[in-house]
Amino acid sequence: LHDSWFSPPSCHPNTRKTVLKEIQEWLDKPKSSPVLWLNGPAGVGKSVIAKTISGLQNNVVGTFFFSTSSDRSAATLFPTLAWQLARRIPETRPYILDALKSSDALQTSQIEQQFDLFIVQPLKNVSCSGKLMIIDGVDECVDENMLKRFLRVLTEAAETHSMPLRFLICSRPEPRIHAILERAPDDPPDTPIGLSDESKEDIARYLEDKFNTIRQPAKNGSPWFQQSDIRELVQRSCGQFLYASTIVRLLD
C-alpha cells in the first residue's frame, strides 16, 4: 500500500475557470451522478486540473494516478485508495485492518472483492458525506479487462451502495472508456467535461504572464516579446498546455 498522489503543478492563476466551475457545480449538486468524467487529449492539462481540485477541496480522501510504471495495473488501485482512506478518515482504519487480516484480498485478482472490503464496507460503518476520490490517467491502465471491471465497479457500486463518495475520472477521450461509463445501470455519469473550449485563451494568458517574469534583453525598455509571438505560440500549441510549459522552461 502506498500514497499515489502525483505532483504536477496546480492551474496557473485565472486559467481553467470554466472547467473548475463545472466540477465545483457537480460537487455541490446533491443529486448529480456519483461519477464525473474529465477528458481531453494528452498534454491538455487533465492532471493539473485534478491536482487543483484536490487543493481546493478538503473532502478528497483518495487519489490514484496510472501514469507511473508501478501503478499501471488496476490490481493496486483499491488497496492504494484504502490506505489513503484510512489516513484521511481514521474511523475507517479498524475496518480496513480487519479486512486485511481476515482475507487474502491483497493477493486476489477479484477487484470487485477489493472494492467491497476496502472501500464500501469501511464507509458503511462510519458517518461521513460528500467525499471525493480522483482517479487520473485511466487510459494508461495496462490491462483492458481490469480497466473495464474497475470502471463498472465504480459506476455500479457508487449507485447501489448509496455511498457518501464521488469519483472524478480523468483520461483521454477514448471510446472504450466512454462506452463503459455510458452503460452505468441506473444513473449514468453527468455529461462528460471535455477540455478544449477555453484552452487557447488560457494558454495565451499563461504565456504572457510567464514571459513577463523572464528577463531577456530588450531595446528601448519595451517587452522582449510581441503579442504576435504569443498568438503564434498559441496556434502552434493546438490547445496543449504541455507545449506552452515546455516553451517557458526552454526560455527561462
TrEMBL record:
Matches recorded under Gene3D superfamilies: P-loop containing nucleotide triphosphate hydrolases
Domain Nephrocystin 3-like N-terminal: 21-172
Keywords, ordered alphabetically: Repeat
Domain of life (superkingdom): Eukaryota
InterPro entries with a match to the protein in the record: NPHP3-like_N, P-loop_NTPase
SUPFAM superfamilies in the cross-refs: P-loop containing nucleoside triphosphate hydrolases (SSF52540)
Protein name: Nephrocystin 3-like N-terminal domain-containing protein
Native source organism of the sequence: Amanita muscaria (strain Koide BX008)
